[in-house]
Amino acid sequence: MSDETKDNIQSNEEVINELTKEVEEQFTLKNDNVIEPTTEFIRDAPEDFDKSDNEDEQSKTKNDPKQEDDYIDEVALKDAEVTLTDEEREERHKQSLELKKQGNEEFKTGKYLESVFTYTEALRLCPLKYESDRAVFYANRGASKIQVDRIPSAIDDCTKAIELNDKYVRAYMRRAKLYEETDKLDESLKDYETISVLDPGNIESVKAQQRLPPLIAERNEKLKTEMFGKLKDLGNMFLRPFGMSTDNFQLNQDPNTGGYSINFQQNPPQS
């Protein structure tokens, strides 16, 4: 399964949230015992806003990455390189390295947004065959984006750097920290585990592998409780017309197997 496919798989929480929302939109209560379907079924499209950008600009670009100011069209770059001579490719490579130096200086002096644009120009200029250099450009641009609060885009740049150089420890480290800051704890732990393989003496990754598992377990328990609550609300919505509720069904967990069994109770105890 590709990484892109994995990213498109919804979590249990997302499935429950979506299912609950759809049912609530599809049905409206006419009285205590009658439910009628609404005339229209509406699904809200997910939105991913970058808070550091102007909202009007976001509405223009969020569905079309080719309109973003830092978009790198590698297909167009590949097509353009076909017409270049070896000397021209070498010259473009040298120019891109000079742009990297410029971007580094801009970063050091706090000109973070300027460095984002400079690294972008380096990426648009550097021939695709120089994968190691391009990985550095992406990782450096990611560092600059962190400083201007473009976190999702910074994660994307770190990911691109890793795709070009899967042994790039600094890119893994940067992405691991960003994942943890954005509550993607499982992804963060996975990156730290990779860092330990590539750099066994990395103390920060060792500490993270001790810190993150309890946080992941705590989060999962909280999510499980929330999902059970949403499922209960969903069940009550369907059972109400029949004069029942989820209280009529007792959920018992087998301590040996961890599995659940459901028992029906005609007259559940009153709380």
Task: Write out key terms for the chains shown.
271 residues; mainly alpha; Serine Threonine Protein Phosphatase 5, Tetratricopeptide repeat; two-stranded antiparallel sheet; 62% helix; Tetratricopeptide repeat protein 1; TPR-like_helical_dom_sf; TPR_rpt; TPR_domain_protein; TPR repeat
Q: Mind sketching the topology for me?
A:
Blueprint: H1 3-8, H2 12-26, E1 27-29, E2 35-37, H3 55-61, H4 74-81, H5 86-108, H6 112-125, H7 131-147, H8 151-164, H9 169-181, H10 185-198, H11 203-239, E3 249-253, E4 260-264
Antiparallel strand pairs: 1-2, 3-4
Biased composition (Basic and acidic residues): 41-74
InterPro entries: TPR-like_helical_dom_sf, TPR_domain_protein, TPR_rpt
Keywords: TPR repeat
Write structural notes for this entry.
This protein has helices at 3-8, 12-26, 55-61, 74-81, 86-108, 112-125, 131-147, 151-164, 169-181, 185-198, 203-239; strands at residues 27-29, 35-37, 249-253, 260-264. The protein is mainly α and 271 residues long. It has three domains: 11-45, no CATH class; 73-166, Alpha Horseshoe (Serine Threonine Protein Phosphatase 5, Tetratricopeptide repeat), CATH 1.25.40; 169-234. Helix 2 runs parallel beside helix 11, helix 6 packs antiparallel against helix 7 and helix 7 (131-147) packs antiparallel against helix 8.
